């Protein structure tokens, strides 16, 4: 049976389409503008002729970025912190959430209460800094991946996921066959938790990729600082990383400003590109994992 839609339904649907198209354009336009500005000619940037599509093709800003040793060092540091940190985060979060989801673990309620308290109270920045310094982690790579290695919110979501998705009967059957807890966790639990692991990987990876405050407080060595801190310095100094090279090639002050501006845009695109490429592969798991882990029966 075909149901005919009235004029009110058509107006409502048309309004929704127009509204969503407008929101999509507002969201996408800044990315398009930055991409267009990063590859446009310097004359178009100086004359402020770029509004949507690029005018002229110029990849000098990208060449300048990849020839900048400080930029490449910060980029490598960010990749290292993201890969190593995410691996540690996922392993620690899942290995802590699994026993807390098992009814056979007698003190799980007490531990969950202890963990939940940390969501609302913290020692503060100064005691944390003193602790980090006394442990010898200040100005080292490991501070970026060890401090805050387990996010309590993610731990709770993962615990609920294990509790609602993986029955304890599976563990009991595996133990009857001779498997120990490590075998059960790595060969049974983790393979059955692809959706949740994908969610954790995405959330932790994005957090590490955009990490700024931790590096600002605990990393004074520029050779260890991530991309987010480099971008902050770049925006504050007005493109100081490009000034030296720009001054040698251009004598027009406006063109120097254009080179610096284009260098910023190119740096932004290079910084965003890995996450933008990484996200679509995990998107199909994201909603599923969040819904399963957020609902408790």
Overall description:
It is a single chain. The protein has 297 residues and is mostly helical. It has two domains: 1-58; 60-294, MetI-like fold (Orthogonal Bundle). 74% of the residues lie in helices and 0% in strands. It has helices at residues 7-39, 42-46, 60-67, 69-101, 108-117, 125-134, 143-146, 152-165, 168-176, 181-189, 194-209, 213-218, 227-237, 240-249, 253-294. Residues 240-251 have low confidence and may be disordered.
In short:
The protein is mainly alpha-helical and 297 residues long. The protein has 15 helices and no strands.
Architecture of the largest domain, according to CATH?
Orthogonal Bundle
Mean pLDDT across every amino acid position: 82
Number of strands: 0
Biggest sheet descriptor: none
Which structural class is indicated by helix and strand composition? mainly alpha
| Overall number of domains | 2
CATH homologous superfamily placement of the largest domain: MetI-like
Order of helices and strands: HHHHHHHHHHHHHHH
Low-confidence stretches: 240-251
Which fold does the CATH topology of the largest domain refer to? MetI-like fold
Helix content: over 70%
How much strand? under 5%
Instruction: Supply the CATH class of the largest domain.
Output: Mainly Alpha
Rg on CA atoms, Å? 25 Å
User: What separation lies between the terminal Cα atoms?
Assistant: 37 Å
Number of helices: 15
Categorize the overall geometry: globular
């Amino acid at each position: 049976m075909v149901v005919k839609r009235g004029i009110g339904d058509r107006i409502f649907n048309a309004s929704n389409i127009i509204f969503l198209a407008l929101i999509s354009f507002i969201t996408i336009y800044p990315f398009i503008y930055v991409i267009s500005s990063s590859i446009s000619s310097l004359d178009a940037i100086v004359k402020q002729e770029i509004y949507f599509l690029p005018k002229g093709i110029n990849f000098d800003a990208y060449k300048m970025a990849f020839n900048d040793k400080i930029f490449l060092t910060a980029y490598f540091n960010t990749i290292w912190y993201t890969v190593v940190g995410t691996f540690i985060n996922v392993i620690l979060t899942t290995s802590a959430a699994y026993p807390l989801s098992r009814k056979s673990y007698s003190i799980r309620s007490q531990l969950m209460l202890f963990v939940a308290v940390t969501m609302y109270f913290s020692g503060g920045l100064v005691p944390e800094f003193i602790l980090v310094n006394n442990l010898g982690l200040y100005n080292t790579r490991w501070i970026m991946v060890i401090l805050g290695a387990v996010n309590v919110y993610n731990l709770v979501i993962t615990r609920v996921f294990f509790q609602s998705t993986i029955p304890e009967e599976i563990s009991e059957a595996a133990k009857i066959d001779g498997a120990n807890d490590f075998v059960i966790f790595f060969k049974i639990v983790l393979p059955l938790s692809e959706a949740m692991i994908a969610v954790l990987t995405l959330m932790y990876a994005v957090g590490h990729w955009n990490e700024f405050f931790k590096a600002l407080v605990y990393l004074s060595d520029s050779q260890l600082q991530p991309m987010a801190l480099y971008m902050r310095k770049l925006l504050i100094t007005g493109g100081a990383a490009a000034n030296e090279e720009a001054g040698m090639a251009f004598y027009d002050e406006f063109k120097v400003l254009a080179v610096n501006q284009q260098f910023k845009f190119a740096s932004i695109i290079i910084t965003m590109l890995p996450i933008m490429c990484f996200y679509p592969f995990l998107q199909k798991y994201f909603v599923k994992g969040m819904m399963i882990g957020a609902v408790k029966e």
